[in-house]
Amino acid sequence: xxxxxxxxxxxxxxxxxxxxxxxxxxxxxxxxxxxxxxxxxxxxxxxxxxxxxxxxxxxxxxxxxxxxxxxxxxxxxxxxxxxxxxxxxxxxxxxxxxxxxxxxxxxxxxxxxxxxxxxxxxxxxxxxxxxxxxxxxxxxxxxxxxxxxxxxxxxxxxxxxxxxxxxxxxxxxxxxxxxxxxxxxxxxxxxxxxxxxxxxxxxxxxxxxxxxxxxxxxxxxxxxxxxxxxxxxxxxxxxxxxxxxxxxxxxxxxxxxxxxxxxxxxxxxxxxxxxxxxxxxxxxxxxxxxxxxxxxxxxxxxxxxxxxxxxxxxxxxxxxxxxxxxxxxxxxxxxxxxxxxxxxxxxxxxxxxxxxxxxxxxxxxxxxxxxxxxxxxxxxxxxxxxxxxxxxxxxxxxxxxxxxxxxxxxxxxxxxxxxxxxxxxxxxxxxxxxxxxxxxxxxxxxxxxxxxxxxxxxxxxxxxxxxxxxxxxxxxxxxxxxxxxxxxxxxxxxxxxxxxxxxxxxxxxxxxxxxxxxxxxxxxxxxxxxxxxxxxxxxxxxxxxxxxxxxxxxxxxxxxxxxxxxxxxxxxxxxxxxxxxxxxxxxxxxxxxxxxxxxxxxxxxxxxxxxxxxxxxxxxxxxxxxxxxxxxxxxxxxxxxxxxxxxxxxxxxxxxxxxxxxxxxxxxxxxxxxxxxxxxxxxxxxxxxxxxxxxxxxxxxxxxxxx
Length: 707
Hints:
It is built from 16 helices and 46 strands. The strands form twelve sheets. It has a four-stranded antiparallel sheet with strand order 4-5-6-7, with no helix packed on it. A four-stranded antiparallel sheet has the order 8-9-10-11. A hairpin with a 4-residue loop joins β10 and β11. By secondary structure, it is of the alpha+beta class. It is 30% helix and 35% strand.
């Protein structure tokens, strides 16, 4: 009798689980046909037991406008619930959630869409209180910056309408980053200077200095001579200026500019060549010091609430005196003091003062900086290449970067001149001589002169890569070359990425492959099923091809290789391919013979003769003979190929450790995060404390107190 009760309990438990899963499926089926009442009912019944998918479904319902439940705040509430619950799910559950379109990527996409829609909704109300609600509710939304700017603008307009001391004082207290214009001029001196130099020529400024040596504008005249002499921004112009005006106070700046431009990549080769090309450089000891420092890696450390840097031996090179620091890039690192950002070099010397609200790491010799809520660009000696008066600034690409004021985008060059007017609603980076731009909701391409090369008529365009770019028109995808000619017409529902000279093309749930010229090398006749987590691509000469729910491999000649023994297959890696039969995975060789039996729940490709496999919800590693090298001890693991010295990250629960290829524990599973890897040095975080570990010597070189 007791056995019967136990059996009935197990059956009921299984049925209960199936019912819960069935509710979720019913909910998404109802959602698919826009039956929002039924979908909402099923999701609400499942919210306690299947919080992640149920709250994802509810978020979709509340997000949409075509049902009576539409409510953007509720959509946000449920996507947050979904995100929190999704993180704690097992790998198996996360894989199952893909059937409902639920993944970290879809959660992030949904959040971004909710942020955007919520911002449009609250912005349309045009009130400070509603914008405050958006800012305080949607704290992670990128649109918060726009909302803050709009709120500040409304508040400032209100203050101007009242036009009282208290109104302005309240505005300043409430919104301390609002701008105020200060006008202070000495009109006599200013007008004398302006009249004497009204044509803005070098000769006029030279005469002004001679005739008015005591004028407070002498330095400005010298600055103007410097600016006009070096307006092209070339190294030759700066060097010519040094030789012609050796007494000008800008000579040192000119030298530093030449040095910064010549060695912007901070490579030892550039530094050595600079010494040869400019033997008259008056700060040669700096170059010698930098040559030594380029070869030294420095790492941020934290002591007593302050930050500094150590070298790879653990020696403190820069004392812990800063409020925050970032990693070195091109020889300079951001540091913070008194709430402001600046830059130091590897010797700890302050190079750019602490005057900015925000700074980006130096790339290609430039940094985007922010003052009073507006962005500009400085070079490595701190000179403003572009004043802080722009709303957005991208990184330089092919000598140009996109900038915006308000809702309009254009491009500036490395001298800070606007070379392509701000006529566009969006602007992307340059790639292979072309950049994506948007106007009136349509996209196209311009060249670096600002000419429209490919008409602005597409719904979406991607950047060019190897002479080709994907585009979308009338909900269909195609591929263009840099001349604007179609390599593949806009008639496909889905396109993959080019790999090994081929791209997946899909139409009506059938897929095949085209080559770089657009010729179909594999007919569009294979089934694009739910077994694919992402577009199919060629790997090691083969791609997965599915027919009638059976998978095989296909080569670029269209030869199809299959066997009746398996249901799914992945491309070969190191001579073996993962195959599945009856929900179990094994491996076959290139002759389609089973080499490693169907024994595993999940498998990965072989990397360096080892493959990660899963059994009983634990992972281990086998070799090409199927021998278990690392036992099934871990919840998850990375690949050994990610570390040059043969180590592998393993996880148990939320904690991370390191093992070697024999399975020996190098670092126990006690680390919260591996924050970064620089050469052999790994940065660990444990209970909000950091440490640095040398993976070659397998020794800690530095630990924060309390680690």
